[in-house]
């Protein structure tokens, strides 16, 4: 333990205080949610980082995901040939990789993992696990069963988690709707998580285990932040009830494989469209900012980074420090953590991989904390996707959903940062979870 672990610990409560400043009802705090939400995160992190058995499970899961990813690349290599080979890799025909190509190497993992998750749903394994987590959240935190079920589902899946509570959406309170959006944006789907692992596995060998634990930590973090930002004023219909997930099970295993693969393709198309549109808009904004910024810098004699990433980096710099990231690395990582809010976590993880490959970070804890803090869909584009998706399931609630959307985005962003703090509390320099 060192001073940075204490900074991370203090950061948890600073973030809670920041959320309280933006609360819609500062006198109405559900202390049971706050206490158990933070407590569960602490217990999970303690088990993973400190308890020997937890560390072994962590490393086992990390190894399992990496091996599964290698299986996923087999199909991609058959279809795309040497384009699908990772940098430095040589196939059986003696062909060498052409370098990292996002579309042909990383995106196919989404299809494979979508298929795998669909199979686990068909075998009733996933619903059983989700119900277990939902039961834990409901009983400990005194929240509605519907909220708990969505939070538990979001540990493993994305926007489709709202389908598990479709029968209850039209009767949900504004606070419940905010929670659904918050947990959706604060977590990541398993198929996309595998995509991030592919991006970072060369520079960060144990990234798979860290992202799995980040996904577990972010669910209770989102519940905490959501209930602070928009406290419950009504009595939810499913308060304290343990409800079953609502979903349509495929008739056969082969149908599950087909539907899973198709879902992966749709997600890839969505990600590609999003990246093209958002990155193009950001480039346009940067063009304007640089035109104005150069003149201001010339007149003032200052050296301010006027790019959108740079400006957001200044805003997120204090938050980066309270995560427990050392001062020498904070300047670099504040921009990466900040850019997620606009250009999505895909670009942010790619930039983190680039920083690691160049050896720009001076403290190993910095990369770990950043990986946890980035693990979520907390950005503007995702907010639009979740608002549209949930509104389609409950058209009568469209107005309420739209009104709580920005509060949910704030709660999700703070939840991701809290997850980074939790990792910072327990991570030590000599941890076996760092990898080499």
Write the layout of secondary structure elements.
Layout: H1 3-21, H2 31-49, H3 52-80, H4 102-122, H5 125-141, H6 145-153, H7 174-186, H8 190-200, H9 207-229, H10 253-300, H11 308-322, H12 327-357, H13 364-373, H14 380-393, H15 398-426
Helix pairs in contact: 1-9, 1-15, 2-3, 2-9, 2-15, 3-4, 3-9, 4-8, 4-10, 5-6, 6-7, 7-9, 7-15, 8-9, 9-13, 9-15, 10-12, 11-12, 12-13, 13-15, 14-15
Main attributes of the structure:
mainly alpha; 71% helix; 436 residues
User: What is the distance, rounded to the nearest whole angstrom, between the alpha carbons of the first and last residues?
Assistant: 21 Å
Succession of helices and strands:
HHHHHHHHHHHHHHH
Largest sheet: none
Total DSSP helices: 15
Tell me the structural class: mainly alpha
Mean pLDDT: 86
Number of strands: 0
pLDDT < 50 stretches? none
């Amino acid at each position: 333990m060192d001073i940075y672990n204490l900074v991370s610990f203090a950061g948890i409560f600073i973030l809670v205080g920041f959320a309280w400043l933006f609360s819609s009802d500062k006198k109405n705090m559900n202390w049971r949610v706050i206490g158990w939400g933070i407590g569960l995160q602490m217990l999970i992190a303690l088990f993973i980082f400190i308890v020997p058995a937890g560390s072994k499970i962590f490393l086992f899961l990390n190894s399992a995901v990496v091996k599964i990813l290698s299986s996923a690349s087999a199909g991609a290599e058959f279809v795309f040939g040497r384009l699908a080979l990772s940098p430095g890799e040589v196939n059986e025909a003696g062909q060498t990789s052409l370098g990292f190509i996002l579309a042909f190497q990383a995106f196919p993992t989404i299809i494979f993992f979508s298929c795998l998750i669909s199979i686990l749903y068909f075998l009733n394994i996933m619903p059983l696990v989700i119900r277990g987590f939902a039961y834990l959240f409901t009983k400990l935190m005194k929240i509605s069963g519907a909220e708990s079920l969505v939070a538990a589902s979001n540990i493993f899946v994305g926007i489709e988690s709202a389908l598990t509570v479709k029968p209850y959406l039209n009767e949900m309170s504004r606070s419940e709707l905010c929670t659904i959006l918050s947990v959706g944006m604060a977590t990541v789907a398993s198929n996309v998580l595998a995509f991030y692992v592919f991006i970072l596995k060369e520079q960060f060998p144990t990234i798979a285990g860290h992202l799995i634990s980040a996904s577990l930590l972010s669910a209770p973090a989102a519940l905490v932040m959501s209930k602070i930002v928009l406290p419950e004023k009504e009595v939810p219909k499913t308060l304290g009830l343990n409800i079953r997930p609502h979903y349509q099970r495929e008739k056969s295993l082969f149908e599950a494989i087909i539907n899973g693969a198709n879902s992966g393709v749709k997600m890839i198309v969505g990600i590609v469209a999003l990246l093209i549109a958002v990155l193009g808009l950001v480039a346009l904004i940067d063009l304007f900012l640089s035109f104005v910024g150069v003149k201001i810098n010339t007149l003032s004699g200052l050296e301010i980074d006027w790019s959108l990433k740079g400006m957001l980096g200044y805003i997120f710099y204090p938050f980066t420090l309270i995560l427990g990231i050392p001062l020498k690395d904070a300047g670099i990582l504040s921009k990466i953590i900040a850019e997620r809010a606009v250009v999505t976590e895909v670009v942010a993880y790619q930039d983190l991989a680039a920083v690691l490959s160049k050896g720009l970070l001076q403290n190993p804890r910095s990369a770990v904390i950043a990986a946890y803090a980035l693990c979520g869909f907390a950005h503007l584009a995702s907010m639009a996707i979740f608002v549209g998706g949930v509104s389609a399931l409950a058209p009568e609630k469209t107005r309420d959903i739209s009104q709580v959307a920005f509060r949910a985005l704030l709660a999700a962003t703070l939840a991701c940062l809290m997850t980074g703090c939790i990792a910072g509390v327990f991570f030590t320099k000599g941890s076996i979870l760092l990898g080499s």
